[in-house]
Amino acid sequence: MKRSDVSFKKSSARGGTDGSRLSYMGLPCPDIFTGEMAFHGKHEYVSIQDMQKSVEVLVNLVQVWEESA
After folding, report:
1. CA 46 to chain centre
2. Do 19 and 2 contact (CB within 8 A), yes or no?
3. Which H or E run includes 43?
4. Rounded to two decimals, what is the model's pTM?
5. CB–CB of 57/1 below 8 Å?
6. pLDDT tens, position by position, 11-44
7. Cα separation, 58 vs 1, whole angstroms
C-alpha cells in the first residue's frame, strides 16, 4: 500500500469476508480493496482509476513477497 501511495486504516472485520473465518482460526487474512463505493446497494460502483490502483497494489504485494523469498 505504501509503495502505491495508498493510505489505509488498519481495523478488524467481523464476518462478511471469506478471510474472516480464517482470521478467527488464527491465520490473518487482509481484505484487499477493489475500490468499490456504496457497498451492496443499487448505486454500488467502482471507478477505473480505483481498479487500476488496486491492481498496482496487488503487483507491489507480489513484488514484496518475491523480495522476501
Report:
1. 14
2. no
3. none
4. 0.69
5. yes
6. 766 666 777 788 888 887 777 777 778 877 899 9
7. 9
